[in-house]
Amino acid sequence: MALNKLGIDSLDFKGKRVLMRVDFNVPLKEGQITNNQRIVAALDSIKYALENGAKSIVLMSHLGRPDGNRNEKYTLKPVAEELKKLLNR
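The chain above was modelled as a monomer; its predicted structure follows.
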């Protein structure tokens, strides 16, 4: 049985808000990213949506295992900063 998957190139992004699930669970040491490979892996999809007219993109991810509690140790702020740098925004 074959699975019929939609590719990102078959979607219309013009003027739409996009919710994208990404894997940004990157290793941190003292609040600094030690390997940004997972962020880099998502760049093509993020850029594709932006370049094809997405009004906005909400990126959904997690960092570590916070066990349902708010903990600054698991903040995605370092990921956001790295993403800004990689996207030149």
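The chain has two helices and four strands.
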